Structure formats: C-alpha cells, structure tokens
Amino acid sequence: MSSNVGLKLGSLSLDVPFFQASLSGYSDYAMRMFARRFGCPFALADVMLAKSVARPEVLAKACFQPGADEHPVGAQILGETAAAMAKAARALVAAGYDVIDVNCACPVPKVTRRGRGGALLDDPDAAIEIVKAVRDAVDCPLLVKLRIGMDYSIRSQDNFWEIMTRAIEQGVDALVIHGRTVSERYRGKANWDVLASVKKRFPSATIIGSGDVFDAREAIERMKRTGLDGFVVARGAIGNPWIFRDLRCVWEGRPVPPPPDLAEQRLILLEHLARVAQGHPEHRAVGYFRKFLVFYARRHPKRRHMLGALMKAKTRAEVEAGIDAWYGDAGDRAGRR
Predict the structure, then answer these.
(1) pLDDT tens for each residue of 96-113
(2) CATH number of the domain that 79 lies in?
C-alpha cells in the first residue's frame, strides 16, 4: 500500500485524492453505485435545480433521494438566487446528503441564459452571495464548482480571481475547478497550468482539478505535477467504472489489471440495464440506457457494428439479447477475426 495521503473535504476524509463529479443526465444512483464498487470513495449526484428540490414533493421522488448504502454522497445544486440555493441546501442535507456542491460552472446556454451555473462567473457579487448563504445554511462540507472564467478576457480573469479569493474567505471546504472557460465548453484541452497557478496562489486552500481525466496514470501524474490536492473524474467515468479501479491501483502503487474482457463488460451492462429498468417504464429505460451504452461501447472491438445493432433495440429483452450476442462467445469471436 502507498503511504500517500488521500483528500480532506472539511470533515470528510477520503483515502484517495479523487472522486466522481456530478454529471448532468448521468450520475444517477446506478452510476454512483458502480463507481463505488470499483474503488471510488465518494460521488456527487446529478446536478439538481435548487428551486425544484427545495419543494418537498419533488425531493421526495426516489431519483432525488440518496441511497442508504452509498454514504458519503454529495448533492450539486444549480440556481441564481441565494435564498433558493440556501433553502435547497438545507433540504438536501435533511434528506441525507453528506456534502453540498454549488455549481458556478455549467456552460450550457439554457443554464447560463438564466443567470445560473457558469453565468455566475460574470457576477462575483451574486456568486459570493450564494456561497455565503449556503455556507450559513449548512454545517456539512461545502464545495464550489467553477471554471477558469467566462472567457480569457482581462475582465473575466479578474472576476475569476475575485470569486476564488472571496469564496475562500467564506470558508468553503474545497474549490473544484474545471480547466476550461465557460465559452470553451468542452472544446480543446483543459488548462491545468491555470489550476496549478491557483494552488500556488492559495496554498492553504483545497484545490481540486477537473477536465480530461481519461487515463489513470496520466491523471495521477498531472495531479502531482500541478500540486493540486485532488481531482474529479467526470466524462471519463461514463460507461467506464473501471477507471476508479485503475486510479486506485496507480495511487497505491499496485499493478493495474488488464482491461475488462467482454464477459465482464457483459455482466456490468446487463446489471446497469436492470438497475435503470427499476426506475423507469420500459420504453424510457431503454432510451435512457442508450446514452450509457454509447460510452460502454468504446471498449468493444466491433464498436460501430455493435452499436448499429443495439441502438435499434426497442425493448429490454431486445437490448439484453443484443448484449448477449455482442458480448458473449459470438461477440468475442467477432472481435478476434
């Protein structure tokens, strides 16, 4: 075992310096459960709209409730007013969430047009009013998710540094920073050099990196090179819970096992589909599962052919039959030809 320390998020101590980020439309209970099974110590739920989850009848829905077997688990909230964000934070902690994460990063236009997410980077006063209100509302660890600015203009960069400084003064427990601007969305490569400069400027703050974490060894090396306290895995975990197994092995100095074979992938795919089917009507479950399937398929040696067949499946039975065909003995033989 490595003697490397893990990551401290306020009162929460993790044994490794990484966890799963909140992923809009993806990080539901099933995805979080698979992440934990493969070595992730902590995961954030899907981003939640503050004004919605502050309503008891909405928060009572199963999809918003944390699983009894997944603590610690965090909730990320999105909103434009301090009052709504504080009310949502209190409600989510009362519902059982262990960590609150304030979203000041989402680059999606329909979010930013409403003054939420990444748009807050253009308004330091509004961002800090929200952070302060949430900090005053809850006693649990508080994270703030940001990007490195709206764009690379001088004004935007000044706003970013102002928000960083004032958020730390408000007593946030960690700042999770994606190394792209809001205007970049997911284009190009994440700029981890900016994240390194943040840590250098605020050495006592807990700074967690985000962006382009797809390879275990590269992620650990990047974290050590930049001096950050940790990092989150976001898109790199969709359809790939094995990344947490690999990250843990690299961090602990153990050999990384070979990639999962088709037989192991088949079992995970079938279980993931079954878990999705528990929470949705069949036609919706199949449609919802497809977006995960696209990512799982990246490991298949006949990806295009497999996806072409499975994406046409309309019932759970058809999807299961397709998985059996492409990930069973026939699929294995097809991959070796």
Answers:
(1) 999 999 999 999 999 999
(2) 3.20.20.70
